[in-house]
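3.2 Worked example (two chains)
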Amino acid sequence: MTYREIRVIGDPILRTPCEWITDIDDKVKGLVEDLLENVDMDGRAGLAANQIGVGLRAFSWNIDGDIGYVLNPKLVEASMEEEYQDGDEGCLSVPGLWFPTKRAWYARVEGINLDGKKIIVEGEELMARCLQHECDHLEGMLYLDRLDRAMRRKAMKEVREKL
């Protein structure tokens, strides 16, 4: 296994939107292998490419023993009008801190696999949270950006104290 160091808040790559994958070459195949291997660890629900220092649109997930990946993901459905969840959320790039984050109950992502074929990844509850969280990463956002003003102020204070 190739262990990849997780980039933490303050690293500029986490705030930079990732590039679309135009060619599925050996570099992309290696990235997917690294994403799958590095998400398959206790306490990891998802891992975006920029969290391991690669500015390409790809992420992996590990939800209830289901491990997978998607290239060029696009969040196509995440409606909070009907149902939403408001539980604590954490992030490998903001280690050890959890804050209540409002997310859609259901989410659907469309992307491609290593064969260039369209895939759809969808789910409710934790899977929906993961899909939304990882798509945010690829846009250069952290879950902290989704917090309301008062909670974000508290969170940023805790981040400064911890890191």
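3.2.1 Second chain
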Amino acid sequence: MNFTVILEPDPSGGYVVSCPELPGCYSQGETVGEALENIKEAILLTLEDLADSREPLPEPRQVLVSTVSVSLR
């Protein structure tokens, strides 16, 4: 299964990473690679919890990320 993850630099150092398809599924790491490995583990644990609770597993979906420009008046 493929899941979209969002990495953001943490002001105190390292990276925070989240999975928008699994609300509340977050992790962190000192490097991008470490953060990605940690979110994989968090995703697996979340999926195992859902399966144990007999809740439906989420369908992976495409998440689009873009930027917009705004001007302050």
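3.3 Remarks
The chain is about 30% helix and 15% strand.
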